[in-house]
Amino acid sequence: MTAPASGPLAGLKVLDLSRVLAGPWCTQILGDLGAEVTKIEQPGQGDDTRRWGPPFLDDGSRDSAYYLCANRNKRSAAIDLADPRGAALIRRLAIDADVVVENFRVGGLVKYGLDHASLTTLNPRLIHCSITGFGQDGPYRDRGGYDFLVQGMSGLMSVTGHPDGEPGGGPLKVGVPISDLVTGLYAATSILAALAHRDRTGEGQHIDMALLDTQVSLLANQASNWLNGGQQPRRLGNRHPNVVPYQDFACADGDVLVALGNDRQFRDFCALLGLPEVAADARFRDNSGRAAHRDALEAALCPVIATWQAADLIAAMEAAKLPGGKVNTIPEILADPQIAARGLIQPMTRSDGTPVRVLGYPGRFSRTPPDYRRAPPRSGEDSRAVLRDLLGLSDEDITTLIGEGVVAETLRDPHPASERQ
């Protein structure tokens, strides 16, 4: 028996018509905060990411680890929206929903009567969030958008990676699908803002989220450097475009990250290294000078830093209250005591008893904390419960829909994972 939601969004009903990552990431956030999320999947296919592996779960579902990262706190109903009867079922779910999230191509839901104009006629209070690669208008509106494509088109890859001419030089994507993830975050924030407006006015609305828009908005200081200073951003490896020194340095046995945000920290760092003359050098006294003479500063610091053991330098910086650290691997950071203390890794159990571990919601609420009540479901495992509980269909009617292929269900394994060999 799944515990009832207890978060700040408890009672909010979200209909999730999205797949892959940006949309599911958004709805997972809403689910973590207590919303009741119903995920609609295509019978026999399910969310694309269920097959994005290896690795896969060895539990009979063969769901990928990728899928597990973005789909907890949801129920899955497999309904064929291409069948008029299936589309009618989804419209009925939308009538009672507070929020719909979808990532179909522009205009792709019109023929099913599931577009914003159709649904808002049935439910004027509905918040309808559409997530696409390039938005609902503009010359690129009909293009398909994927994270990798958007990272390149947005300019992000032009400032990520080592400079041309250095070993490994050239544009690089970020190591996680950052465009998808942040679009999901912005979508969740936008939905909450639209809900606040609805609480005041009773009005629903449409939210148009585009991966390209989101990623361009994240260019932040790099875009401002160009817009307001005429400085064209470029790839600097791990160096910061504005703050110096703010980069990695090679010690005798590994690399250390040094992130000095002001002149005092720079002077203290030079004192720690035994280089008071560097701190006193007129070229390096303030950040603008250090940025202008970046190469000369590195030439002065690198040979001395190279004589240190990495752990010793990190410890010395910590004692001096200077920000520094090491580059962790994923296994290292997930085993770090700080992550354990913050409770960021959450154990969950799927309906058949299979254990999974997920990364939890990072915000800590003093009164209404997020909860982890539903492990990522198998495709269609809640079809019968959703149609019965939310639409009031009889078991006989549901069985007929399943028999005719309009709805699919995944039966729970009668043999828990603990019993399987």
From TrEMBL:
The keyword Transferase applies. The keyword Ribosomal protein does not apply. Keywords: Transferase. InterPro entries: CoA-transferase_III_domain (IPR050483), CoA-Trfase_fam_III (IPR003673), CoA-Trfase_III_dom3_sf (IPR044855), CoA-Trfase_III_dom_1_sf (IPR023606). SUPFAM superfamilies: CoA-transferase family III (CaiB/BaiF). PANTHER family: SUCCINATE--HYDROXYMETHYLGLUTARATE COA-TRANSFERASE. It comes from Sphingomonas liriopis. This is CoA transferase. It holds the Pfam family CoA_transf_3. GO terms for molecular function: CoA-transferase activity. Residues 363-383 are annotated as: Disordered. Residues 370-383 have a biased composition (Basic and acidic residues).
